[in-house]
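Support request, please re-run this one:
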Amino acid sequence: MNINKIFKNTTSLAFCILATPLSLSVAAHDANKNLMENKVSVSVEEVNNNTSQKQVTGIYHDKMTLVTGTNDFFGMPVWDFGGDIGPERIAFLQAYNPDGDLPLDITADLPDDALIASGVTQHFLDFAGIPAEIIDTSLNNIPLRQVPTLVSPAGTKASLLPIQDIPLGLPALSMPNEPITWGEWKKATGRSKIVCYDDGTSFVDLKMHGLIPNGLYTIWMNVGLDMDGNGVFESLAGRAWGGMPNAFVPDINGNGSFQRILPYCPKEDPSALLVNVVYHSDGITTGASPFVMPLIAGMATHSVLAFPLTATPL
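Re-run finished. Output below.
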């Protein structure tokens, strides 16, 4: 197959990273990777080469919830963030519309064989204060396996073909690479374990299953922002949970894990609201920003699982 065919109809994007503050971070030690599921076999002081034994002040387990956006499932909120934010929700996942330019909303009656697609909602643009005219509408309604990714040092982007269908050496999708359907997407499950200590630190252990094999995922925390200093959260922001990098790649069976040491207990900080597991359909991380313009959240980043820290279930 001619390489020109692969790069045909590509889109070259100039972009800028949204400037957002970094979340609190502490360097993680390589020993974390050997922790067993639901068991903290390495203490925080061992990881930090600290000789003093810390006392556990709390152990928190949460079952992750399947979502279709930040605090969104089928267009309805799942948790209340409190303050002026309340039950704000934003959809970051759409269904492919083969008969039109705009994707379809994901609803409870969506068939399992429906393709999942990119898409940005007007609600999110309004919430984030992003002018609609800067949006590249050609990036809407693209099946997730076909979302363009970088294929050259010049910044050229193209949709990739399956590795089994092209000559060796060309950019390709790793196997398995079947189209991502709603039936496959909703298989995602996960559990979290947070252990808090008397010195204010904590250890986080996330275990996830049913994810897209070999997919790129990142972990984000929704933080409540007190813009007026009056003790009330007026706005919501996304922060890389545990600092950078915040990415992981599931194995070929869709199993993934994520461990971090935090300098605070997220279950006791009222500004720590919700944790999101986000899939990157373009295979590109976005640094310490939840998305990079002009790829608005929903065009290449899609929430799949979430669990509350201090947000209240509805």
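The chain has a mean pLDDT of 83. DSSP finds four helices and 22 strands in the chain.
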